[in-house]
Amino acid sequence: MIAGLRLAVTLLTVVPLGTGRADRDTARPAMLLAPAVGLITGGAAALVLLAGDLLGLSRLLAAALAVAATAAATRALHLDGLADLADGLGSGRPAAEALAIMKRSDIGPFGVVTLLLTLLVQVAALASAPQPAVAVLVASVAGRLTLPWACRKGVPSARPGGLGALVAGSVPAGAALAATGTVLVAAAGAGAAAGGIGGALHGVAAVAAGLAAAAPVLHRAVRRLGGVTGDVFGALVEVATTAALVALAALS
After folding, report:
1. How many whole angstroms separate alpha carbon 228 and alpha carbon 205?
2. pLDDT at 16 over 90
3. CA-CA distance, 64 to 52, in Å (whole number)?
4. pLDDT of 143 above 60
5. Residue 21: pLDDT over 70
6. Do residues 152 and 174 make contact, with C-beta atoms less than 8 angstroms apart?
7. Tens-digit pLDDT profile for residues 162-206
């Protein structure tokens, strides 16, 4: 579990823990512990929001800085994956060509538009959330809960190498379900601490919204590309995080 946590933090954040072991034996616990890594990225954003409140910044500006902090904490890795997947799927090309497009270092029009709209929605939703610091923590954890499901057994890798091949199919469905239950309980607890029973229900609804939004994206990616890649994982994290933030803002 320690090796898995180290791998999860190394893969998903800028925290310098070193590569350590990176094999199939550590892939399973790494992906199961991925939601916990959301506490690092979400925690960075929450600290920015709290600092912004102390400095008297507007909610919109504080939210923008918080989203920027999250991007910095991940080297914008997930955002890059979202843009690449949008370009690959948006191209309408066969799987091999779409995967080649996703590997390019440049970003096409589909990626640019998707990236801009996602960031705008994240900032607006976070600025509208009644408890933004709690919201960004819940949403960050919910976003990374998509990874155990994307890596569950039966979901293939689209390429023979890379992150997808390392972690694809490594998580039993039962373990992914257990991780989901843990996150739901944690989200309910965080929501209850901030807003009582209503807050607990909102936390659960946000996690559910994140998973519901990511599911069709995963299905589409696997169907079009033949499996998952690191870019698909990043896109799922951003889609679920955004949906969770929107849910928390809408329920306020």
Report:
1. 26
2. no
3. 11
4. yes
5. no
6. no
7. 888 889 999 999 999 999 999 999 999 999 999 999 999 999 999
CA angle, 142 then 32 then 197, to 5°: 35
Q: How far apart are CA 120 and CA 71, in angstroms?
A: 13
User: What does the chain come to in residues?
Assistant: 252
- Exposed, middle or buried by CB within 10 Å (0-12, 13-18, 19+), for 98? buried
Residue 197 has a CB neighbour count (10 Å cut-off) of 10
Tokens of 142: 């919910």
Question: Nearest 5 degrees, angle CA 18-CA 20-CA 22?
Answer: 120
> What does pLDDT average to over the chain?
94
Task: For Cα atoms 167, 169, 174, give the angle at the middle one, nearest 5 degrees.
Answer: 115
d(CA 160, CA 164): 8
What global pTM score does this model have?
Answer: 0.95
User: Per-residue DSSP letters for 150-179?
Assistant: HTBTT--BSSSSHHHHHHTT-B-HHHHHHH
The whole-angstrom separation of Cα 89 and Cα 197 is 41
Determine the Cα–Cα distance for residues 215 and 48; give it in Å rounded to an integer: 30
Q: Quick one: what percent of the chain has pLDDT higher than 70?
A: 98
Q: Which amino acid is present at 121? A: V
Give the tokens for residue 242: 């955004």
With a CB cutoff of 8 Å and minimum separation 6, the contacts of 9 are 15, 17, 37, 40
Q: pLDDT tens digits, residue range 91-103?
A: 989 999 999 999 9
Cα(142)–Cα(151) distance, rounded to whole angstroms?
A: 15
CA distances from 52 to 66, 67, 120, 132, 182 (A): 9, 13, 19, 11, 31
